[in-house]
Every structure is written in C-alpha cells, then in structure tokens.
Amino acid sequence: MVYLLARANVADVDAWQTAFDANDDYRTEHGQRGYQVFRPRDAHDEVVVLFEWDDERSPVEFFDSPGMRERMREAGVQGRPEMTLADEVTRTAPAGPSA
C-alpha cells in the first residue's frame, strides 16, 4: 500500500467536492483503495486529499493521464496539485475512554 498526499487550490470547494465524489468509481478502477479529504482552516480555496493506492506507479500514471487532468480541470482545480508519495511508518488507534 502506498499513500499519495495531494494538495490543490480549487475555484469552488463545493463544486470540486461534487465532481470528486462523482469520479470515485473512476479512481477505484485505476487502483485507488480509499481516501480522506481535508480542508485547511486558513485556506478556504484549498483541499488536501490523502489517497491509498495499491502501488506507487498507479497514482503517478493516473494523475498524469490526459483523462484525469481533464477531470481535475472540469472540477475547478487551479494549476497543478502538489503531490507527495509516502509509505506508512506508524499507525495508532484512537484512544478509548479512560477508566
């Protein structure tokens, strides 16, 4: 499993979210296993997405493809998103209630 952290400026966050949700099956067909969407508190025109992928080649090829670049443009992504591939090192479970 590999993770891709993507940070993008968008024209309209709500319109971007609608387009992002509509393309979930398309991303899954190309190797996406899951994702989390975040919005920085101090940047209302920005989104941060942590994707999970099968391997590191899949997301790089996918996001460089003409089809995905067109989908991002239609969703209102402005410019090229900042993307970082990462491997999981540590994961903790949420702390439960103390006794």
From TrEMBL:
Residues 13-70 form the ABM domain. One of its GO terms (molecular function) is monooxygenase activity. Keywords: Monooxygenase, Oxidoreductase. Pfam families: ABM. It comes from the Archaea. Coiled coil: none annotated. Residues 64-99 are annotated as: Disordered. InterPro entries: ABM_dom, Dimeric_a/b-barrel. Signal peptide: none annotated. This is Antibiotic biosynthesis monooxygenase. The lineage of its organism: Archaea, Methanobacteriati, Methanobacteriota, Stenosarchaea group, Halobacteria.
